[in-house]
Amino acid sequence: MDRARLAALHGVDVTYEPAPGQEVEVSEETVVAVLAALGVDASTPHAVRDALAAHELRTAHRLLAPCTVLRSGQPLTGLPEGTEISVETAAGDRLAAVPREPGRYVLRAAAPDGRTARGDLVVAPQRIAGPPQRSFGFMAQLYSTLSDRSWGMGDLGDLAEIAAWSGRALGAGFVQINPLHAAVPGHPTDPSPYRPSSRRFPDPVYLRIEEVPEYAYLSRDARAQAGRLLAKAAALRDNVLLKDMLIDRDAVWELKAQALELLRQVPLSPGRRAAYADFLAAQGQALDDHATWSTLAELHGPDWQKWPAGLQNPRSAQVARLRSRHLERVDFHCWLTWLTDSQLATAQRAARDAGMPIGVVHDLAVGVHPAGSDAWSMQDVLARGMSTGAPPDAFNARGQDWGLPPWRPDALAATGYAPYRDLIARMLRHAGGLRIDHVMGLFRLWWVPEGRPPTEGTYVRYDADAMLGLLALEAYEAGAVVIGEDLGTVEPGVRRQLADRGILGTSVLWFERNYDGEHADRRPLRPNAWREACLATATTHDLPSTAARLTGEHVELRHRLGLLTRPLEEEQAEDAAEVAEWIALLGRLGLLPEGAADEEAVVRAVHRFLAATPARMIGVWLPDAVGDRRPQNLPGTWDQYPNWRLPVADPDGKALTLEQLAASRRLHALAEEVRRALSPDGEP
């Protein structure tokens, strides 16, 4: 009983529900291990009693938390009666009460018993402003959208082109892309954008080399070397586009790294030098840490846990000496980040110049690689020996282990949520919107102790009010929309809280059925039953393309790879029945006048349906627009399927360039249908 009470005080669940009404008790070993990762000894009854006493003592003496997060208009509570407070603004003005204006403040309190305290005060807006108007946009994996100018994978120059083209020619309101987080280097590099080295800094592999200003000023010899690299890059591009080879991120980076070494030799102009100095000053310690890790990774390998002991601590004297010894290389990595940040800014500017009301929507992965830059530099706020994942459920009886160390909620709170606030602010630097992968992680995460299967984990809870409030303030100040990926197992009340904050959810056509209520019948939801506060789409990067769904090819693919848990015929019959239900509904609604025999027409009808919902944003999966059959990622596979390495292709699997996408009759027809459906007067 005492251990359960101690666990509850630290947000650790001792039971969970894999299905409504089905409660599973978490093992004592798991609870003890998770509490230990939070710095709490619960190994014996005596240790539990001591931990409870220590917690009560801390709570009794604490006057203010390091960071208090309130919504605008919310009163400050929890202080002893008679406590005097004052609030200091960023300009140094003193206020006698909590302001309503969203922002960051300093809060001071003096209790009648003589205790005084100082802490941060964050006043969050009541709601994030949603999209200024209903609009559609393309959802794309940037690496997969090669142009005739890219070096074997899509880059930031291509992102600017996608935004400018789709905004101006098609009336798109946004373009949503995969995370551009810095990857962990390796041979081969993990291609998943959702398992990065750092979420705080972008990956320079996405740089468009020729658009770095110093490229124009290469010396004659350097320009000749660059020309040879361009020829090799063209060969890489042709391998993907003409020879059906996979995107080779490592080969692309090898060429770009050589080109960047050439560009490094060109001195920055005075104006560029001043801009770089400003960038370094603004990025501070976080960038210095990332650049130092990148340098150490070149010297000792990409896994900091295998480095010499003195280098495993980012604040050690050994790291400081090595940083000084390799200052030029550290600065090189800072410079790469600056160049990438500059091209990100250019892409968002191109989107807004094209008339997009939102522009680029960036994606925030749920965590970071345990061997990477963020895990090294933020060891104090990440839980050692723990990995995030998902519990067993109806779709995966063995649960999931994502191999990502979770935030420690206690450590985050102790820092005033500074690492989290910094992360969100960095993600929104050049964004019109932000997608939060597994947004339920702002409420709770499934922690799996190292060495144990995902079935032996438990949920650890976070201060959702603080996490949502800080997110809302950063989005408010950036003028950005926020989309939560709320698919899968979602705790009751989460979607309501997200909507109350103005955070959009994600609604995928095939999952929108009548599941709730006493008379749930699992029938497809009609358009008027969909929620307004969402991004509505037909599919995502983890799901089959619409063409594959309609034809059942995705079931055959999973069968070939041994991923089915039931006989093929049974899976095919169920899948065909579900698709038939949706097609029948499209027909009854008059959205499929061409008939179900025309696959392209059905894809258009699916998107007419999405536009008929009240959803504020309609996402068109870019491969859907050209009939691509292949998923970008097939969950449950590693080397059995080329996850994250496929270019966008036509129905026959032939890779398409960005230029071919822009000229595609099929794509233009689909975009015109969606735009017409969204138009108040029905005109394209």
TrEMBL record:
Assigned EC number: 2.4.1.25
Protein name stated in the entry: 4-alpha-glucanotransferase
Matches recorded under SUPFAM superfamilies: (Trans)glycosidases
Leading EC class: transferase
Catalytic reactions on record: Transfers a segment of a (1->4)-alpha-D-glucan to a new position in an acceptor, which may be glucose or a (1->4)-alpha-D-glucan
Pfam families linked: Glyco_hydro_77 (PF02446)
NCBIfam families: malQ (TIGR00217)
GO MF assignments: 4-alpha-glucanotransferase activity
Gene name tied to this protein: malQ
InterPro entries membership: GH (IPR017853), Glyco_hydro_77 (IPR003385)
